[in-house]
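FW: tagging you since you asked about this chain on Friday. Here's the raw sequence from the shared folder, copied in full. Didn't touch anything.
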Amino acid sequence: MSTMKKTFIAILSILWATSAFAQNLKLDELLLFQKKSLSYVEDYLSRRGWELHRTSINNADYFGDLFTNYNAITWSYNKNRWNDKAEAWFYLYKYDDFDNAITYQMGKERFAQLKTELQHSTVYKLIQTKAVDEGLETRYRGNNLEIILKQYYQDGESRYSDVPVHYLITIFNYKEIEQQIKLAQERIQREHEEQLRIEKEEQMREEQYQNFIRQAENFEINKKYSQAKLAYQNALTVKPEEKDIQNKIIRIDKILQFLIERQNKNYDYKESFYSDYESINNGLISDLTAILFNEKNLTPTKITITANIDTIGVTTTDFVSTISDTKLNEKLKKISDNIKLKQPSMNGYTVLAKAVFEYTISTDEAIIKVNKNANGFESDAPKFSAYRSDISNALYSAPMGKFTFQFNKATINGNDYVEDKLLKYNGTGGPSNAFLSLLVPGLGDHKVTYGKKSGVSTALWTYGLIGTGVGLKFYSNSEYKKYHAATEQTAMDEHYQAANYSNQAFYACVGTGALIWLYDIIWVWKTGAENAKAAKAYKNSHLGVYYQPDLNATRLSYTINF
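HL: got it, structure written out here
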C-alpha cells in the first residue's frame, strides 16, 4: 500500500471518529448536564456540531405528564433540512430551582454502550425492566437520579429517524419529581378542601338567607311589616347583591308610610278607585235621566252629591242643589240617599274615602207635528230643526202619514239624553181614496202614493180615449146619415164603410178608457188597503228612541201593543 493511500485512509478514519465522537454523548456528559445552565449546555452542544431545533415553554410534552411544567429545549444532530429527520436528538428540560432533566435519542450502537455502562455501574442500580407499548423500558436509580432506557418500535414513518426502532435515555432527579408530584397532590388536596369549605359556607349562607326570607314572608302574611322589613334587611346582609330584596324593602317602606297616612287621610274615591267611581256615576246619570224626562222645562242648574265611606263600610251622603222646585229636589235627594260606595281598600286595609258627583242639569220638552210623504218629511214646528236628527231616526221605517211626537230632552254636564213618544199618527193614503178615482180617474193616485204619482197621465189617457170614442161616434152617425141620403151605390158603400169603422173604433176607445178607469179605481183601493194595514201595524208596534248612559249611546226601543 502506498504512502499516499495510507495517509488518505488515516484522514478518513480521523474524520469518522470525530463525527461519531461529536454525536455520541457519554453517560458522564449526560449526568453533567443535570446541574448546568442553559448557556453551558448550548455552548457545549454547539461546539460538538449540534444545532438548536426548537423550544417549548411550560409544555414539555415528550414524556406525557412527567415534565409538564418544564421548559423544553431541543437540539438536533445532522438534521436533514428537507424532512426534519436527524441522526440524533437531545432534549433539555428546565424548571426553576430544580435540577435539569434530559432525554437523548441516539443510534443502536451508542444505546448498547450506555446500557452496558449502566449494567456495570456501582452507583446506579437496576429497578425494573418492563414491557411498554411496542417496546421495553428499563429503569436505574442512584444519587437521587433515575435513568430510563427505552427502546420501542414505531410503525409508520417517523419524523426523527429513518429507522423503525427508537433508542432513548432519559435522566432526571426522581426525588424532585416525586416532590413536585407530592406538592401537586397537596395543592390539589388544599384546593379540594378549600372548595369544600366554600361550598359549605355557601350552603350555610344560603340556608341562613332562606330562613330570613321565610321569616320575612311570614311576617308579611301576618301584616307585621316592621318585623318583615328587619328580616329582609338581615337577608340583605347575607346577600347584599339581591336587588329583589331591596325592592321588597322599598315596598314595605311604602306600606309603613301608608299605615301612618291611613289614620287621618281621606282618599279621593275618583282618583284612587276610578272604576268603582265610574260605575256609580253611570248609575246616577241613569237615575237622573229617568227623573228629568218627566220635567217639562228646567233651566240649567247645578247639583252636588258628596258621599263619604268609613273604614267599616258605612256610607253617608250630602246633597246640595240650586233648584227651587221642592218636589224635584226631594226626588233628586232620594237618589243621593241611595248611594252605596263599594268599600275601598289599599294594601289589604280599608280606608276612608270621599266621592264627589257634580252635575249641571236642564230639560226641554217639545211637541212636534210631522208630515211624511214621498219627498221626505216636513214640519212647521219651531223646535223641528233641534230634533230633526231624532225625528229622522224615528221615521226611518215608518209608513207615510202625519205624526205627532213628544220629545223630552235631559242635558247632564253637556250631554243630551233624548226620549221620544209617538202621541198621534194618521195615515192619509187609505182605500177610501178609491172614491176620488171614481169621480176623476187618477185623482186617488196622488193620495195613496203620498205624492209619488200625480195621476195626471191616468186621467189624460182615460179622458182622451173616451173623448176620442165620442168623437168617432158623432162621425159614425154623420156618415150613416150620408149613407141613407146617397143615391149612388159607390157613395153608399164609402159612407157605410166609414160609419162602420168609426163605430167600431168608438167601442174600442170607450172600452179601453173605461178599463183604465176601472183598473185605476181598483189599484187605488188595493194600495190604500195596504197603506191602512201598514199604518195599523205601526200604531200597534213602533220604534222609540232612548239614551243608554252606560254605553254613552242612543238606542232604539221596539214597542208592541196588544
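FW: Residues 267-362 form one domain.
HL: agreed, and The CA atoms of residues 462 and 513 lie 4 Å apart.
FW: great, closing this out.
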